[in-house]
Amino acid sequence: EILSSLPLQMSLYFNVYFFPFWWLITVVILYLKYPILSDYYKFILVTIMILVSLTELIRLYLGYVGNLLEKVPELAGFWLLTLLPQLPVILFLLFNEGLKIHSLERAVHVIFAAFLSFQVVAAFFTLKRMVNTLAARFRLTEFHRLEEQRPGPGVYSPAAGSSS
Which residue segment(s) compose the domain that 104 sits in? Predict the structure, then answer.
């Protein structure tokens, strides 16, 4: 039985090609609006760009490995990196009006937020299915191991003893 999720994999595939486009648009617009931003927003935006860039590379790698190779730890790492740093940061970039958001910037943030939202849901259900299947396999393996260790009928058991 294949446990990988095709919708999740398709989303990851398109995300790999969309992320450089998102990054380029965001950096160009940041460069253009940098002089009119307050100092703390300048610091926040530069920090966010570094954080998102590094996290996205790791996140996409973990998503590919976790989904295609059906590895639960990697897929769980992907899910956590999507849910915790990435999604809140993109929502901050999308909804904070103090950042003087450009319409093109808003458009790419909406698409990126849609990718992230879909991936959170798809990865959750894929993880749930993988964990349940692996737990069932583990239980069956343990059951078969215990069946092999159990003595068959007609075998003398010292616990029963003899009354002679």
Answer: 6-138
pLDDT score recorded for residue 141: 83
Distance CA 128, CA 7 (A): 15
Q: Categorise residue 161: left if φ over 0, alpha if ψ from -120 to 50, beta otherwise.
A: left
Distance between the two ends of the chain, CA-based, in angstroms? 56
Please give the distance of CA 133 from its chain centroid, rounded to a whole number.
19
Q: Which of 143, 128, 117, 115 is nearest to 75 (CA)?
A: 128
Contact 69, 84 (CB under 8 A): no
Which pLDDT score is estimated for 12? 97
pTM of the model: 0.83
Q: How confident is the model at residue 161 (pLDDT cuts 50, 70, 90)?
A: low
Confirm if 15 and 7 have CB atoms less than 8 A apart: no
Residue with tokens 């849609």: 114
What is the number of structural domains in the chain? 1
Rounded to an integer, the average pLDDT of 27-47 is 94
For tokens 């920090």, name the residue: 47
Has residue 54 been placed in a domain?
yes
